[in-house]
Specification:
4-stranded antiparallel beta sheet; alpha+beta; single chain; 3 domains
Amino acid sequence: MRMAGTPPSGSGPGPLEMRLPFSWIETGRRLAAVSAVVGSQRALASLVEAVEGELEIIGSVRVRRGGAIYWEAIVDLGDADPKELESRLGSIDGVRSIEAREGPVRGLAVQPPGRVIESSGARAALMTSRAFRGFLLGMREFLGEEVGQTMSYYAGYYFGREAAREVREALGPDLPFQADLSMIRAEGYASSIEALRSPDGSRYRIEARDLFECEVLRGRRRGRTSHWFRGLLAGVLSVAEGGEWEVEEVECVNDGSDKCAFEARRRQPASDPQARRPGEDSTRAPLREARGIRTRGEGSGRTWRRAPLEFGPIDRLEVTSPEWAGKGLKGERPPLCMGLREVLPALMILTAAAWALLLIAIFVLAAVVLPIQVPGPRAVYVELQVAKAAAGAVILWAWIYSYLRLRDAVARLLLTPRRSASDRTPP
């Protein structure tokens, strides 16, 4: 996993790889997880020196808790025996306990249970490129390319917004945007992130190298692929700077560039009474931004605000021409709320008509199979058959009518999007 950082002088042109020793996969190697508790820094130095004298340490970390130091590492055992290794290392002065646990299969090492990970003062969970690639490509596969990109943007937007809110709750509301970028970089999303701010504070140019999202999509998607990170920046800016922001990727490594670059523009100035304050919910901006919608500059003449189309504010999703089984439903627009009260009457009529049809079918079958003598004149018998036929026709009509009503009601219920509580915020 590549973590943010600047390589020390003379270490080579690439980013410094920070290997976290919680689990490791490397085929063909006999890996093991080593966990030790020592009583002092001197004992830890002796332990590390002894391990390095025999084995290759792939990655290590230490944590001080109380009067003890906990040290964990992933090592390549080679031909060493784990039990003998524990015996030799456990004899070092100051080492209280040590365990060398070989992986369940060759090429895999995993630390024992009982640990949680924290980063930036909060609980954290690591996501490898394998899992993140599945997240990005899975949405595109299931929902389609365009909708999948929109979902990626939304996920990044709310990731960034909530993270920026929590950081400001801990450090204060005046934390600058540059601090957010530093934490994003330090958490492994890029090896370096640089930002340039316009004098009036309405625009940013942000350049990122070794961007996590684009690396996992390399070879699988071409063009500008940083939709998740684009949403992340928009979410952080909505809290750090206030208002609504439009973020566009202008360069991408998957489009031939050596870096990923973004231009962020404030959609509404912070002094605008309609603009949202830092931390306020904003539900319409992410959808417009995910669709790549830009508004025209009003009297500004700036070329970067040009757009072929203009869209009004999006308060809710609407189904303008609902269809069911290829046929249009009655009514120009489905109601915003469909519930059991709309469906229950048609369902009751449909059920009653179905039972009536079943009884008529039984009676007709019985009349055909069993010879039934009807007393009285022939005219009475004919009138009885006509009445039964009329009743059957009425019941059949009621059944068909109720079925159509129920079908339309269920179709509208399924096609009408639901509005959550966060979507009901006033403009």
